[in-house]
Amino acid sequence: MTQRSYLKYLPKAPRRVWIRVGSQQGGSWSTPVALTGAATRADYPVVAASGNAVWVVWTAGDTGAIRMAFSPDAGDSWSIRTIGRTTSGRGSPEGYAGYPAIGASGTNVVAAWFATPAGRQVALTSSAGGSDWVSTPTPATITGASPNDDNRYPVVRGADDGVSDRVAVGYTTADGVAVRVFDGGTLSGERTVDGPWPATAGGRRWTGAYGASAVPFGGDGLAVAYAACRSRQSVKDPCRPNARDARIDVLYRESTDLGSSWTPRRVLARASRSVRVNEAVSLQADGPSGLRWFTWLARSTGWTSYRVLGRSAHAA
Fold first, then answer.
1. What DSSP letter does each residue of 149-167 carry, written as one string?
2. CATH 2.120.10.10 matches 146-316
């Protein structure tokens, strides 16, 4: 997403969504394609892909429309339409912000977003690549109320292990982090990954979490990584990562029964005096007994330093 200025940023100025598609594992890239008009104020674009199919979602900041662009041919052609709406962010200088997310595996697709300022989160599901999302379809509510800030947004990921074609939605509830799974026919009930708070492990105590990235694998497997907010007396909201005394760790859990039970919490990244915030986790799961790959943003609370870190681990 491009904007016209940075140091003298104007919230009412246009913000435009672009996309490039790489081939040969990124060895070459297509010409940039603008998915929004020159005067559009877009917010928070997210991309998903499966085979040659590509999806992009974002919020239209001036109207609250949740927009989706779809390409069946790796970016050679695009169709764009509205798939939902949000009132989140209404009246703010930045405009509407539904923080939409999208994920796909084969032709199974899920899109999720904040529908209201109070944090009602909703999801659309499709087993036809989203082609049946026409005339602003009615989404299902996945949680009626949840913290709605710049961090506790939904994350959608599709399986990519060659076994499963399910899609998972990780999201924050009022007192925990949860996941639902779409199998091509139905969206499962809510499965709590962590919480209610507080939770403890290894002598540490967490009172919140956000950014739950959940990936299906195998028959009934789920791998979930999330930013966990360490309890701090000096911080009123431990999940406010820009607070000076915040400490955010990365936790990880797995399930082999679609979230009915979970492995013990595993700490993948610990906050320290120099790296106080570990967040925006992404992961890939390669089958029930295979490797797991993780990347996340490691930074100071004031963004004076930040890096993207990664590690791999065998299945829990």
1. SSS---EEEE--SSS---E
2. yes
